[in-house]
Amino acid sequence: MTMPPKHMPTILTTWFPNRTQLALALLMGGSAFGLAGCMADVPAPEDVAPTPVSDSAYASESCAQLAHTALTTGDALAKETAKQRQAYNLSIWGPGSLSDSYSMAELSGNDVREALARTKGEMDAINRVLASKHCPGS
User: Fold this and answer.
1) 22, 85 contact by CB (below 8 A)
2) pLDDT in tens, 64-116
3) What is the dihedral angle through the alpha carbons of 9, 11, 15, 18, rounded to the nearest 10 degrees?
4) Most CB atoms within 10 A, among 50, 65, 71, 136?
5) Quick one: signal sequence residues (predicted)?
6) In a domain, 5, yes or no
């Protein structure tokens, strides 16, 4: 391989006239790879599967009680979904992965996937019991 003449600039010297700019560009490129690795760490809320919850936990409730439970559980589900969405967005747009096994969202406590999965399971069980009792609006 022949080297270009000294008077002929290379792509790197054209784009990055000094070493500091080149070093920053390389660091920024490395951060992009860190971000890509981090994206899989925190799932989007819609990708969190519900934890199975037995219908028997709600079987003794009346339709009115079930409706109230559905409202309060729905509120909790909305809050946890919003928190998980924020954690997911942070994992994509945040400063990247600090290590291979932890993301910024996980370290900051914003990743609520377990609570979200449990609440999704509770909501599924409530809806099944509402339907089995033929409650109004189910």
Assistant:
1) no
2) 999 999 999 999 999 999 999 998 888 887 654 444 444 444 444 567 999 99
3) -60
4) 50
5) 1-36
6) no
Which amino acid, residue 55?
D
- Position 15 in a domain: no
Residue type, 29: G
- Could you tell me if residue 62 is inside a domain? yes
Amino acid, single-letter form, for residue 91: S
CA 19 to chain centre: 37
CA–CA gap between residue 59 and residue 72 (Å, rounded): 17
pTM of structure: 0.63
Contact 28, 20 (CB under 8 A): no
